[in-house]
Structure formats: structure tokens, C-alpha cells
Amino acid sequence: MKIARSLAVIFILASCAVAQNAVQERLHVDATDAPRNILHSTVTIPVSPGAVTLVYPKWIPGNHRPTGPIQNLTGLHIKAGAQELDWQRDLVDMWAFHVQVPAGARELAVSFDTLTYNGKSSTASSKVLDLLWNQVVLYPQGAATDSVQVAASIRLPEGWKFGTALAPASQSGNSVEFQPVTLTRLVDSPLIAGTFYRQIQLSSPGETPVHVIDMVAESAESLEITDKDLASYKQLVAEAGKLFGARHYEKYHFLWTLSDQTAHHGLEHHESSDNGTGEDVFSNPNSHNLEADLLPHEFVHSWNGKYRRPAGLVTPNYQDAMKGDLLWVYEGLTHYLGNLLAARTGLRSPEQFRENLAYTAAMLDHRAGRTWRPLQDTATSVQTLFAAPPQWANWRRSADYYPEGYLIWLEVDALIRRQTNGQKSLNDFCRIFFGGQSGAPAVVSYKFEDVVAALNQVTPSNWADLLRERLNSKSPHAPLGGIENGGWKLVYTAEKNSTMEAAEKASDALDLSFSLGMIISKEGDVRDVIPGSPAYAAGLGPGMKLAAVNNRKWSKDVMRAALRTSVHNQQPLTLLAENGDYYNAYQVNYHGGEQYPHLLRAEGQPDVLGEIIKPQAPNR
Ligand SMILES: [Zn+2]
């Protein structure tokens, strides 16, 4: 009831804004130079004579931070008719440009280039393009993005095909014109394109809304999805429908770029998601394991993040600051549900699901920074924490609202099941909070109290106190109640954890967090050291580089062998490390061998965790 009423209010406000104050822009993107990572934009913007300020999107939805890449905006020219106008950048707001529009002028023609090269985080390569419209557009300062209508068009390199949730109005050769949409919807609808393209239907013929995967890759071979994965992604559509009970989109495109040259990331949208993985994700079991929850995670965001959104992240335009305090719901719950859906659809086996959870729990249980920085502050300070370097991450903490949000929502799920004797679960919360009426994309904002109210609707309990306690805790230990009430316990053995093993193969780094208390690259660079660990006590720190272990030249194998023999040895380990221009031998007093986390069944307890990851929807 509450959800339906808020929805009506938002629809009315949005339609009034468009009717009365619509700014009609035309945007053309010449993407024929995408292979060398430069995009050419021309934007036509209606204006009145006098002082005008144009802005470049700064606070990017889904990033929750001022990441609009203004440093990559180049070649800017602003014209009124044939007259070139001088522009001045604002002295404080780097995303704003001031111009004086001459008498008689009614529109500005703005042209500029966007540089998209950023090493392995580039958004284009010789064969693929991931076009983010916020990077190629300007709009008048102060305009609500719902009130700016954009008629966008694009010219692609010869022979490239594309995928997007935008509806084409016309297409001729490599040029496509799209039906006009609000700037909000344009930015919410990225486009991927490339030489090697494939579209896969996930819905049965005649079924609505239609779900498809659009893939572009560096080679035709990379597009060879396995039959098992195809069945899992079809099942993902069914499982998400079952979980939420309604869909808030008219069609859904999983946009998927498979490339080792462009960014590996995921960004959520209402009617699509922008997913980037390596080229070998279907053929390499380790890559497959690590990426298995990517599409489920971004899909969940269509409900949790896009449809229901924390009030502090609902802003009228891309220049107003966002507040990240509820990201433990937006990202934390999505991280939990994405992992559940990966298991419920068979993208991960139950064993892989548990190994992943064991690693997450152990990592947080060894987070020294939790003694000074409560989880809440990791969400509140997203704009500074997210891009922080990996060195000292254990003490600084990082975007822990993802993994620790996972543990908290697992704990809530297990508590609901226990309190209701298995009659209810977090699935019920999802239907109440994210369900409602199916239809076109809409935004319904929420606050902390709304989350608590929906939980109380499932089963009354002191949810507010429990959540506040978890968010404000400075306990050195992670909340493991979900694992324990789930019928399992976290243990450490010398046997490798399969998630950590997959991560090691991908990054080549040796993660000794649960033994020596440090993470080391293949070359010996100390990436991080955990305060309070044996490595920390010996004086080691990130930024140093290991040269030798017990006088033998550093390698991961030499280090592993030294750890194994340390169990039967009274002598400390001697680690020779380079620190700038100096070498020093550090004595590490450790005799526990290799240690990796796993989940072990708790005798006599029901397997609630096994119940949680069971498929809910009928097999398609
Ligand atoms: Zn996310």
C-alpha cells in the first residue's frame, strides 16, 4: 500500500516537470574513432540570451561518487550560429562552463571530444566500445535531468553491431537515431558495440518483458557461451521474478563486454546492466567462478538501487552531491542476493558458494580497521574510500558495506527463518519491499525506518536495534551469526580455499591474511599487512618488497614451503625486504603453517544455509 501511494506521487511530479520545463537537446556521437579511444560529440542546447552555464555530469548514478571524468573532456568549442563563443570554467566547480549567449541566439552548438583511454580500464578497444552517455553530453546547469529531453544518435565504426535498452527510431548503415528520452533515461541506458556481437534470447517466444543478453568481445570464440550457462541465465530471470514478485522495467538487456583490454566492472541500470569481464569467462573455470555473481548482482540492482533507492541517492540532476549512508542496503543486500542467485541458478555450486562465503567472513573477521571505523562509516565515506589504494586497506577499511552487508543480511535471513520456524525468510522481505506493481521504470525512495518497517511486517523483532548495533560496532570480530544460525561454522585449515585459489590465479598475488597476516604480489611487493598479525609485529609494511625468505630468493613457492616447515621449527621466519634504498631482515615469529578459511557443518544443527540457496522457481 505504502509503495503504491509513493509511486503515484513520483509519476505525477515527473510528468509535470517534463511538460512545463522541457529542454530539447540533440546529441550526436561520432564513435568511429572508438578504436583509438576518442569519441566526438556535438550537442545542440536551446538557450536564452545572457549568462548561461553548461555542466558535465559529475555525480554518476551507481558510482555514488563525483566520478564524471571531466579530465577527459577535450576540444571544447561552443558556437551560437557561426559565432564562436569564449567559455570560462567555473573557479570552484570544475564540471561547469560559463558562456555569454549573444542577443538573438536561441541555441548553442557545442562540440567536444571524450578521451576514453585508461589502460586496462579503458571503455573502448580496437574491437569493442562501452558507451556511457554521461561521458559525452552537456546540459544546462540547474535543469532536472528528468526535464531534459535528448534526441541521441550515434555513428559506429564500419561493420560494428550494438546492444542497448534504448529504442532505435531509425538506422542507416553505421548510423542509428534513437527515440528521444529524458537525460535520466539516456544516462541509464548505455550502449555496447563491437565487431564481434551476439544477442541471446533469455525469454520464451511471446513472453514479456523480454530479457536478452547482448555480448561484444575481442574474438568470435569468446562469445561461445556454454549450454549450462545459458540455462543458468534463463533461470536467473525466473529466480529474480520469483524473489521479487514484480518487475519494474519494460524489457531488460544484460550488456556484456568480454575483453582483456577494457574495464572489468558492473554498473546497474533500470532496464539494462553494463557488465565487463575477461575474454575467458566461459572457458576458464577460475574466471567463471569469480564472475559468477556479476550478472545476478547487477540484475538485482534493477529492484534494489534503481526502483527502491535510498533517499540520499535520489538527486534531481548529476551535479548535486549524493549521500551513501544506506549503501549497506543498496550494495550490501544486492551482494547477498547476487550470491544467492548465483547459487540458486547453478552459476556457482553449493561448495563454491560456501567457499566464497567463508573467505568473505574470514576477511572481515581479520579486518583490523573495524576497531576504529564502524561499518556505517565505510558507506558514509564512499566518495573517498572507494578509490583508495590497496596499501593499508586492512587498517583503513574499504567498501566493506558490500561484504559485511552480505553477512548482516544473511544474519537477518537466518533470524527470520529461526523466529518463524522456517515459515518465512528474507524472500518475504524482498517481495514486500521491492515487489508492488509491475510496470515502467520508476523510483521509490526509502529511509532506514522503511527498511525496519518492512522487516517488522515479515516478523516483528527489534530489527532497528540489531541493525544499528551491526552498523555502529567497533568489535574486532565480524558478525558471523548468519553462518552459525545457518548450521555451519567458520574454520581454518591448511587446505586452500577455492575462491582464494581462483583469485590468486587471476591476480598472481599470494594472500597470507590468515597466517602471516600479509598479501604479497608474485614479484614480492607487499600489498598489505594486517595490524596485530605476526607480519605486523615483525615490522613489515605495505610498500616494501620481499627479496628472500629464510635466505632463499623470494618466490611464492619458497614462501609456502617455509610456512609449512615453520610448524616443526622453533626459529622465526626471516624475511629480507627492500624498503626504498635499504634492505632489512625481519624476524617473523609464526609457526602455524598455511591457513585458509572454510565452512564446516555444525553437528546437530539444521542446514539452513543449504535451504537458503535452494532454487525457488520452477526449472525453465
Ligand atoms: Zn552493486
If you compute it from the alpha carbons, what radius of gyration comes out, rounded to the nearest whole angstrom? 26 Å
Fraction of residues in helix: 25-40%
Which structural category fits the helices and strands? Answer: alpha+beta
List the ions, cofactors and other small molecules found in this model.
Answer: zinc ion
CA-based shape: globular
Q: Would you kindly provide a written description of the structure presented here, covering whatever features stand out?
A:
There is one protein chain. The chain is α+β, with helices and mostly antiparallel strands. Helices cover 30% and strands 27% of the residues. The protein has 20 helices and 32 strands. The protein starts with a helix and ends in an 8-residue tail after the last helix. Residues 268, 297, 301, 331, 334 line the site of zinc ion (ZN).
Feature tags:
single chain; 620 residues; alpha+beta; nine-stranded mixed sheet; five-stranded mixed sheet; 32 strands; 30% helix; 27% strand; binds zinc ion
Give a quick summary of the entry.
The chain is 30% helix and 27% strand. It is α+β, with helices and mostly antiparallel strands and 620 residues long.
Outline the fold blueprint.
Elements lengths: L1 H20 L1 E8 L7 E9 L3 E6 L17 E8 L2 E3 L1 E3 L6 E6 L5 E9 L12 E4 L7 E2 L7 E8 L5 E4 L3 E5 L2 E4 L2 E2 H5 L3 E4 L1 E6 L8 E8 L9 H18 L6 E8 L7 E3 L3 E6 L7 H7 L2 H7 L7 E3 L16 H4 L1 H13 L5 H16 L9 H6 L1 H4 L7 H4 L6 H17 L6 H9 L9 E3 L1 H11 L4 H10 L8 H5 L2 E6 L4 H10 L2 E3 L5 E3 L5 E4 L4 H4 L7 E5 L2 E2 L2 H11 L6 E7 L2 E7 L7 E6 L6 H5 L8
The structure holds zinc ion.
